[in-house]
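Below is a filled-in request sheet from our internal design queue. Each sheet records the structural input a requester submitted and the sequence that came back. We keep these sheets so that new team members can see what a complete request looks like end to end.

REQUESTER: design group, bay 2
PRIORITY: normal
MODE: inverse folding
CHAIN LENGTH: 1163
BACKBONE (tokenized):
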């Protein structure tokens, strides 16, 4: 291409000077290391199936080409024709036991891979045997299905992969692939063309591959196709080569293809369309993604980054020869052009205006922030400020509140003395309540650290913490690039998945947030947009993001480290970046979304867009920081931080009447828990039996009864090799039962699954593997291979993603069986199906654990009776939910989520057309959205789904919609998608859980919402996906938390609760009674007086030896007297009994008093 100047000075294309072309130069060939070399095979012969081992002193024999055809040999390579494993395609058999007992190894392959190999599963080579079940050591160049070139080792049934961050391989071009296992270091590494592409932990070694009876090049122990491409050299070492030795091997093997590599280098130069030119300003020197370097005959006039120092006005022009050098594995091509540098035409005023616009004070700063550096060749002076703001070398305030200020500065050109003033509107935030927020991307490491390229190449956030940073979201990405185009009806493919690097966060003019970044292809390689454009997105709160699109910067020399700052002095955005050659550039926009508002592209750095080194952030790549207020920090911590229990509310006391019975049911049933995000939750209480028994209800007083907050810790894993798990709380004719069903994923061979197992128990705990091992439960096969569906077809495998639901009043199972193709189960024959539990004549459910009690499975079909998926046939992962009286199915087909209405009375037919509502559009949910499940909470529907390829990268996404308002949920606009996973791989209770996903909502015995899901583990030496159970917490922002750890859910100090039980004495009735006597006609008359001193009316019964009298109701405070005639002249001493009754607190209370009286003599 033409070398265009970046300013508006005169430029004239010309053919001045010679264009010099140089080809054929190569680096000096380095010797191949021979220490530890046990096998060396050169595939340069012209005939014969036997390839000799040329490693000196090795006891290993020749390699043998299987299914050889004469045309496979070219004299410089062996062509590998590929084809099905069982075809007549060729491959190479290596000697047995090639690395037997070796704890370190290096395997070198100089190969070409076809395009099909770069997009499909294969083994480049294999050290092992013909079984895929237990052990092998291999390498692969597959860049499809979420893979990238890798080295892998499987031992004891557990496969471990170390995968590169991007593809880095081009189809049909020679590449050096070196795989290293260092047993002493416990690592595995992969090198591509002599450069390390991946390194990760590897706790096993080739010695753990015990059976090495079928070692091969181009053939896998799996049913993968044979490798297609070519091979020229293959070496095996019984030690780990170092980086320098590997580079030597790559350079040496490259020499055999020097002519091809030289043509590639020349093609790079040719694609640049380099030509002579004239300029008086800086120029772009293209680097083709770093593959081209430049040299200059006069760096003082034209530097190697394109910086031009033009002669002064009136001085002669200067011709400069610039040489471009393209290098491919040490083989180079060069081209020289002449650039004639003309005298500068810029005036002093033009110069100061150009220099001044590179000085920008950001619109929002934290008190104590240093003034941006003056552009080189200028000085800065503060002319005026408004508001209480002080400026020396820093911008500072003393106010506890933000201060809005106008800061006027004078920029002076040191060379000419010209100056200009700039007035910036700046909000200064108080340091005490302001936190710096770091936005950044990471360098990819491994899937095992949840930091493969799909995750690393996104925008992460971290909060300032002293001199370092605290990453949010467990250092996982938060803003991801969308697909390059909207996913088509045929589904999302790897080719449209995108990533990003070099994110830069800034304040928009309206106070919102902007993000710019360099978009890449999946894995980090260029997708072509970086040549001229940056990716632009907006956010109002940093919790959700809107991708606006591309901003074309008007260059073709590369856009790296893009950055933006709002220039309030000019009411426009200043955009800065560096070219592929490392040269700094900038331009301006009034509106970033409108390319017509773009200003001139100029050379130079903008100080206020500088990045941040990200001290202490693991695998930090690049980024910048902005100040944010306390409310923003709080919202970010709620969404992306950890939430922990802080308090347990004191329980209200319990009173019990003396003599009454007391049981745990009379005590509080749930504890109220508070959390540091302001939310609360309740958990059931298990009361201590001994503590409860110590309450003596016969004795009034206070007692303390203690209990424990119920927090069952389920086994981890809950069940081995049980993927897509479902737990269902079922009301079985008035009895609560818990049902479990899942995909059998033993060793990941779920297509060949021979059955659909269920478990039934009285508690969730008794559904676990531990309960089965203890004999408390058994697993039952509802379906087995060979069982027929309602159409009479034999189901032979899969039995995928079964879920329990009650549909139309009947317990139902939605699942996908598959059928045979060519004598083996074929997932592509799978159809979403339903079977239902039968009921008796009274409408009671039959026993769900009896297979005969279920209907034959029927396929779910469209309204017209056709299959759900006419594109690929397969339909799977169906779920069911109801909203506003309408029933829906949601399922996966064509790699996306579809929804349709249905009638529970006819559950095998949809009542509306399928509509796509969720598509994989990010690197984290790449190519698949599946496993939907729906829960209603607080007026919202929460549809969780799983994305990314099944395995260690599996993640859980979230769609939400309004619940209970009769919204048409078949309208895609009714659903909002979270930009990042709601659950992902990460540490849980101190241990890594990888590939978390395919979850469902359910409830436990105590009515707590639970989350049931699978993760990929190596538990018990197995390699399938295992089942886990957790409780769900709802955060202050209304989103579910699926990874609340044990101590976060209930703090250890809050796990024991107590309640005060007060035993109340039986209530007493208060009254007084007196007995007196008088003489009447010589006889004793007895008088009994009763006064009601209580506050309730009393019913009285008075009994004297001389009679009895009653008062039905004596009001409070009143008295009554009774006279009893004795007819005795002398009354002996005795007693009178006064009984009282009353109603107190709704209960009848009785009391009795005995009043003594003395002897009385009236004679």
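RETURNED SEQUENCE:
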């Amino acid at each position: 291409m033409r070398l265009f100047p970046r300013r508006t000075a005169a430029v004239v294309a010309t053919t001045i000077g010679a264009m010099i072309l140089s080809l054929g130069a190569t680096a000096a060939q380095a010797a191949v290391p021979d220490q530890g070399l046990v096998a060396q095979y050169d595939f340069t012969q012209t005939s014969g199936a036997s390839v000799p081992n040329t490693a000196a002193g090795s006891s290993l024999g020749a390699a043998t080409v299987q299914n050889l055809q004469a045309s496979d040999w070219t004299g410089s390579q062996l062509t590998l024709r590929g084809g099905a494993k069982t075809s007549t395609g060729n491959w190479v058999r290596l000697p047995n036991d090639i690395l037997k007992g070796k704890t370190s190894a290096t395997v070198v392959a100089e190969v070409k891979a076809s395009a099909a190999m770069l997009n499909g599963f294969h083994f480049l080579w294999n050290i092992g045997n013909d079984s895929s079940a237990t052990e092998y050591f291999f390498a692969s160049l597959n860049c499809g299905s979420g893979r990238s070139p890798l080295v892998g080792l499987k031992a004891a049934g557990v496969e471990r992969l170390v995968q590169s961050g991007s593809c880095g391989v081009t189809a049909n071009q020679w590449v050096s692939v070196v795989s290293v296992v260092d047993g002493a270091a416990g690592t595995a590494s992969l090198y591509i063309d002599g450069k390390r592409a991946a390194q990760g932990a590897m706790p096993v070694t080739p010695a753990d591959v015990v059976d090495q009876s079928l070692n091969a090049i181009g053939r896998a122990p799996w049913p993968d196709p044979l490798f297609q491409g070519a091979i020229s050299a293959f070496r095996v070492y019984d030690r780990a080569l170092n980086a320098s030795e590997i580079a030597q091997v790559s350079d040496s093997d490259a020499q055999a293809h020097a002519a091809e590599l030289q043509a590639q280098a020349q093609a790079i130069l040719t694609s640049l369309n380099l030509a002579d030119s004239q300029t008086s300003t800086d120029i772009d020197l293209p680097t083709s993604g770093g593959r081209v370097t430049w040299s200059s005959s006069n760096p003082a006039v034209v530097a190697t980054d394109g910086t031009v120092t033009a002669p002064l006005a009136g001085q002669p022009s200067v011709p400069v020869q610039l040489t471009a050098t393209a290098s491919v594995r040490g083989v180079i091509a060069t081209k020289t052009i002449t650039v004639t540098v003309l005298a500068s035409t810029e005036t002093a005023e033009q110069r100061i205006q150009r220099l001044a616009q590179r000085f920008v004070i950001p619109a929002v700063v934290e008190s104590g922030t240093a003034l941006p550096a003056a552009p080189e060749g200028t000085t800065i002076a503060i002319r005026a400020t408004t508001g209480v703001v002080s400026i020396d070398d820093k911008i500072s305030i003393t106010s506890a509140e933000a201060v809005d200020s106008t800061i006027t500065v004078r920029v002076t050109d040191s060379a000419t003395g010209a100056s200009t003033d700039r007035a910036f509107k700046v909000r200064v935030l108080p340091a005490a309540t302001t936190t710096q927020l770091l936005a950044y991307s990471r360098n990819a490491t491994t899937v095992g650290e949840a930091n493969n390229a799909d995750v690393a190449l996104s925008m992460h956030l971290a909060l300032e913490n002293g001199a370092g940073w605290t990453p949010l979201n467990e250092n996982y990405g938060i803003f991801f690039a969308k697909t390059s185009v909207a996913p088509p009806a045929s589904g999302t493919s790897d080719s449209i998945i995108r990533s990003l690097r070099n994110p830069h966060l800034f304040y928009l003019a309206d106070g919102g947030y902007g993000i710019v970044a360099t978009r890449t292809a999946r894995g980090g390689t260029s997708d072509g947009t970086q040549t001229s454009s940056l990716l632009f997105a907006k956010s109002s709160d940093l919790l959700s993001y809107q991708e606006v699109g591309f901003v074309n910067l008007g260059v073709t020399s590369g856009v790296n480290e893009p950055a933006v700052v709002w220039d309030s002095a000019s009411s426009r955005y200043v955009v800065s970046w560096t070219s592929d050659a490392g040269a700094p550039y900038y331009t301006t926009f009034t509106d970033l979304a409108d390319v017509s508002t773009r200003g001139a592209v100029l050379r130079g750095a903008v100080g206020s867009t500088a990045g941040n080194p990200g001290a202490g952030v693991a695998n930090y790549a690049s980024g910048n920081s902005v100040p944010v207020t306390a409310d923003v920090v709080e919202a970010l911590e709620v969404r992306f931080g950890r939430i922990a229990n802080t308090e347990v509310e004191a329980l209200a006391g319990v009173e019990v009447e003396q003599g009454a019975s007391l049981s745990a049911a009379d005590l509080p049933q749930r504890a109220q828990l508070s959390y540091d995000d302001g939310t609360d939750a309740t958990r059931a209480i298990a009361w201590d039996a001994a503590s409860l028994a110590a309450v003596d209800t016969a004795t009034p007083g206070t007692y303390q009864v203690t209990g424990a907050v119920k927090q069952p810790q389920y086994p981890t894993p809950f069940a081995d090799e049980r993927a897509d798990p479902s737990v269902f709380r079922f009301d079985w004719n008035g009895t609560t039962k818990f049902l479990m069903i899942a995909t059998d994923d033993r060793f990941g061979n779920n297509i060949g699954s021979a059955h659909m197992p269920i478990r039934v128990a009285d508690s969730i705990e008794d559904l676990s593997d531990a309960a089965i091992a203890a004999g408390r439960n058994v697993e039952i096969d509802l379906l087995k291979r060979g069982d027929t569906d309602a159409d009479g077809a034999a189901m032979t495998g899969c039995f995928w993603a079964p879920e329990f639901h009650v549909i139309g009043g009947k317990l139902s199972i939605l699942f996908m069986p598959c059928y045979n193709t060519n004598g083996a189960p074929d997932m592509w024959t799978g159809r979403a199906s339903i079977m239902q539990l039968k009921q008796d004549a009274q409408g009671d459910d039959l026993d769900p654990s009896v297979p005969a009690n279920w209907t034959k499975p029927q396929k779910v079909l469209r309204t017209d009776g056709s299959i759900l998926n006419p594109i690929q046939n397969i339909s799977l992962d169906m779920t069911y939910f109801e909203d506003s009286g309408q029933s829906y199915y949601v399922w996966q087909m064509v790699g996306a989520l579809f929804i349709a209405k249905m009638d529970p009375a006819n559950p095998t037919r949809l009542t509306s057309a399928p509509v796509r509502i969720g598509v994989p559009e990010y690197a984290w949910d790449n190519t698949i959205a599946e496993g939907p499940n729906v829960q209603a909470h607080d007026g919202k529907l929460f549809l969780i789904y799983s994305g990314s390829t099944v395995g260690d990268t599996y993640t859980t996404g979230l769609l939400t919609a309004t619940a209970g308002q009769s919204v048409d949920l078949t309208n895609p606009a009714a659903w909002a998608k979270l930009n990042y996973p709601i659950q992902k791989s990460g540490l849980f209770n101190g241990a890594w859980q990888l590939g978390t996903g395919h979850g469902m909502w359910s409830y436990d015995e105590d009515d707590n919402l639970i989350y049931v899901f699978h993760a990929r583990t190596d538990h018990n030496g197995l390699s399938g996906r295992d089942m886990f159970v957790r409780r769900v917490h709802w955060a202050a922002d209304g989103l579910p938390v699926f990874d609340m750890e044990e101590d976060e859910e209930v703090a250890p100090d809050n796990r024991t609760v107590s309640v005060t039980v007060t035993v109340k004495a039986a209530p007493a009735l208060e009254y007084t009674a007196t007995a007196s006597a008088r003489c009447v006609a010589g006889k004793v008359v007895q008088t009994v007086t009763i006064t009601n001193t209580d506050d309730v009316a009393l019913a009285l019964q008075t009994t004297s030896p001389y009679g009895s009298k009653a008062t039905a109701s004596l009001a409070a405070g009143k008295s009554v007297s009774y006279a009893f005639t004795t007819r005795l002249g002398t009354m002996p001493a005795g007693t009178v009994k006064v009984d009282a009754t009353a109603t107190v607190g709704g209960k009848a209370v009785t009391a009795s008093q005995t009043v003594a009286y003395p002897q009385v003599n009236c004679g």
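SHEET NOTES:
- Residues 1-28 have pLDDT under 50 and may be disordered.
- The two ends are 148 Å apart (CA to CA).
FILED BY: M.R.
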